[in-house]
Amino acid sequence: MAGALYKKPILFAVVVTIAVLVGTVVMMALPMLSASMHPKLAHLKPYTPLQLAGRDVYQEEGCFYCHTQTVRPLKAEVMRYGDYSKAGEFAYDQPFLWGSKRTGPDLARVGNKYTDAWHYVHFDTPQKLFPGSNMPSYGWLSKYPLNPGSVEARMKALGFPYTKEEIASLPGKSKLDALVAYMQSLGTAVARAPKTPLVAPGERNPLAGDTQAITEGRKVYEMHCVSCHGPDLKGDIAPPLTDGEWLTAKGPIGDDTLFLLIAEGTEQGREYAGRKAAGGMPPYRDYFGKKKIWSLVSYIRSMEEK
Ligand code: HEC
Ligand code: HEC
Question: To test ligand 1's pocket by mutation, which of 69, 129, 135 has the most ligand atoms within 8 angstroms of CB?
Answer without folding.
Answer: 135
